[in-house]
Each structure stands twice: as structure tokens, then as C-alpha cells.
Write a structure and sequence with these properties.
Blueprint lengths: L1 E5 L8 H13 L3 E6 L13 E4 L9 H15 L4 E4 L15 E5 L3 H4 L4 H16 L1 E4 L28 E8 L8 H11 L5 E5 L7 H9 L3 E3 L5 H8 L2 E6 L5 H4 L4 H8 L4 E3 L3 H7 L3 E3 L5 H13 L1 H18 L3 H15 L17
Parallel strand pairs: 1-2, 1-4, 2-3, 4-5, 5-6, 7-8, 7-10, 8-9, 10-11, 11-12
Helix pairs in contact: 1-13, 5-11, 9-12
Length: 361
């Protein structure tokens, strides 16, 4: 099977796209053409891919990127058995003549937008896509009228935890924004500074948040590394005293499971999270829940974990075991590939290769 995969808004090294889905397709013996903003993100494509470079769609200036994407998708899908797109934007750039097309729905974009007009337009675009395309969902959603397969954002869970714990370092992985707790994280770093505990922030930031992070870094409160490819970010997180997920109580987060919670569990990092329903359910006692918008409680939870090594070791071991049993991506990869093969009308070519060949993410 030949599959054309496309994104213009996400980083080419996006964990879900590159290190889970594309890797699963390659390991199943399929050919992949990848349309993505390689030059913009300074990424060299993997040699086993047929890569097509496009500009990245950023902010309000997206017309050029979408025009380029339309041409690139037409080229990439010309001899493909299936087209798989990952952006809402690309629904506006699909070639007229194309193979069976799949939209991978990562998130509820309308819930993140203010006002009435834009969310309404997004809902109309989603409804149109549901009528004309195959859909894959990253999580269960009630906003679609039909049933669609769910391919969750699971991760690669190592067999063992080898890195020694560091009692003076905490981490937060993922995009940094106002509703994603950026200001709370900075305050946690300030509160923990007298105790010699340092915060590593690993991820890109929304434009209006960046000055706050730069000021905090200049004053020595924390280290902000910016965007780091997921597989490297997870290695950086290993051994941390705690992993923080301080998302706010907003509609876009209510029904979502923060991927970082699973990733912390997978690496044996004790989790401190706000009480989003899916996070509480996933942790199942293998972590610490703190109130929304309460950095003092989060800082105290860190200190409590530092003061109790036995509890910390138990949480780490139990969380890792839970992640290995329930959230190991190779356990889901075969079902994902099978869905695409069915939609493309292609039989399975070969059995999946050893999971050990997969690039950790």
C-alpha cells in the first residue's frame, strides 16, 4: 500500500504522525510519502520516506502554505492508495482527484476558539468532512454523528526504568500557553527555588507567553528548552522528581486526556496533575492531583514527593506498570494500520516487524 501523509501546521517530527503512525506503516511494509514543513522546522526527512517539503501554516498568514499544500498533496497522492491528512487546514486544500482520504482528528479546534463565528465555521467544516471522508479520532468525542475508530495518543513504554532519580529537578513537557498552566508553572518554579529544585520546561510556547518564559529563565528560575522532538524530550524527562500537567479547567481540556500524563507514567516519572476527569481516571492513584490554578499546592506536592522516597518509588513503579499494560503504542499500531488497509482496499502485506525497530517516542 502507498500512503500519502500530510501536515502543514504541525512539526514534521510530531510524535503522533511520525513516530507512531508513519513508523507503524513503514514497519508493516507500506510505502509513505510525507508532505510536511521540513525546511521551516529545520528537519531532515527519514531516508525511508518520500518527502515533499511545504511552507508551514502559522498564525493568520496561511494562504501561501495552503496553496503549496494543495499542489504538494496532488503530487503526493497521484499514485497513492490512501491519503491521510492531520490538519483542519488541509480539508481546504484536498485535491479534487484523490484516493480514499482519511482525516486524523487530533483535537477539538472549535472548543479552543473564542466568539461564535469561527467555532460555527469549524463545526460546519467538520460535518462536511464526516460526510465525505473517513475519520480517525485521537479520543472519544460526542461532536460527530457517526462512530469512528479511535487511535489514542499512546506512547512507547520501555521495558525497564534505568535512569537514577534526580531529587532536584521537575519537568513539564508540551506546548506552553495560558490555559495550559504556563504562569502556574513559572510560579511553581519560584516557590521551589529556595529548596534547590529546578524546573525544566520542554516545549514550544504561545507568542504572548514567550516573554514571561524568557524573563523567568534570565532570572534563573527555570530552564526553557523550546521545542524538542518528542523522543528526546522523554529522555530528558527520565529520572525527574515529578512531571507537571497543570492544564486549566476549560472546554477544550474537559474531555481530553493530556498526552503528557501517559508519557510521564511511561518513563516512571511521578505525575502531578490538575483534576481533569480523564487525567484522574488515567492516574488511578498513581500520581498527585492538585486544584486548578493553585501553584502553591503543586509546589507542596513536589516537596512531599521529595520528602518521601519510598512513596515516590512506589508511584513510579506502579505508574510504569500501568502504562506498559494499557498505553504501549505497539499494542495499538496493528489496529491502526488495519483500518487504513481496509479503507484503501489493500490486504496486509507483511506481518509487523519487531517492535524493537520502532523509534521510541
Amino acid at each position: 500500500m502507498k500512503v500519502c501523509v500530510g501536515t502543514v501546521t504541525r512539526h514534521p517530527e510530531d510524535a503522533r504522525i511520525m513516530h507512531r503512525q508513519i513508523r507503524a506503516l513503514l514497519d508493516a511494509g507500506h510505502e509513505v510519502t510525507y508532505v510536511a514543513p521540513f525546511t521551516h522546522c529545520n528537519v531532515t526527512p527519514a531516508p525511508e520516506l518520500r518527502a515533499i517539503d511545504v511552507p508551514r501554516a502559522v498564525g493568520l498568514h496561511r494562504a501561501r502554505a495552503l496553496r503549496a499544500a494543495r499542489t504538494a498533496l496532488r503530487r503526493g497522492a497521484k499514485d497513492a492508495d490512501l491519503l491521510l491528512v492531520h490538519d483542519l487546514d488541509l480539508l481546504l486544500a484536498l485535491p479534487r482527484r484523490r484516493p480514499p482520504t482519511v482525516w486524523d482528528v487530533h483535537e477539538d479546534m472549535a472548543a479552543r476558539l473564542d466568539g461564535r463565528t469561527l467555532p460555527r465555521l469549524v463545526r460546519r467544516l467538520e460535518a462536511r468532512a464526516e460526510r465525505r471522508l473517513h475519520l480517525i479520532l485521537a479520543e472519544e468525542s460526542s461532536r460527530f454523528g457517526l462512530d469512528h475508530p479511535v487511535v489514542p495518543n499512546h506512547t512507547y513504554v520501555p521495558d525497564t526504568l534505568a535512569k537514577r532519580p534526580d531529587e532536584n529537578r521537575i519537568v513539564a513537557i508540551g506546548r506552553l500557553g495560558e490555559t495550559r498552566g504556563a504562569a502556574d508553572l513559572i510560579e511553581v518554579a519560584r516557590l521551589l527555588r529556595p529548596y534547590g529544585i529546578r524546573l525544566d520546561l520542554i516545549g514550544p510556547a504561545d507568542p504572548h507567553i514567550r516573554p514571561l518564559l524568557r524573563d523567568a529563565q534570565r532570572s534563573g528560575l527555570l530552564d526553557w528548552f523550546g521545542y524538542v522532538p518528542n523522543r528526546h524530550a522523554l529522555r530528558m524527562a527520565e529520572g525527574a522528581l515529578a512531571g507537571l500537567s497543570l492544564l486549566h479547567d476549560v472546554p477544550a481540556h474537559q474531555d481530553s486526556l493530556p498526552t503528557k500524563v501517559i508519557e510521564y507514567l511511561a518513563r516512571g516519572v511521578p505525575v502531578i496533575s490538575t483534576p481533569l476527569p480523564r487525567a484522574v481516571e488515567t492516574l488511578n492513584g498513581n500520581g498527585v492531583i492538585v486544584p486548578f490554578g493553585d501553584p502553591e499546592a503543586a509546589a507542596q506536592a513536589v516537596l512531599d514527593l521529595k520528602a518521601d522516597p519510598a512513596r515516590r518509588a512506589t508511584i513510579s513503579a506502579q505508574g510504569h506498570a500501568e502504562a506498559r499494560a494499557r498505553y504501549h503504542w505497539p499494542d495499538r499500531a496493528g489496529a491502526f494500520v488495519a483500518h487504513l488497509e481496509t479503507w484503501a482496499g489493500a490486504p496486509s502485506l507483511v506481518a509487523s516487524r519487531s517492535h524493537r525497530r520502532a523509534v521510541p517516542a
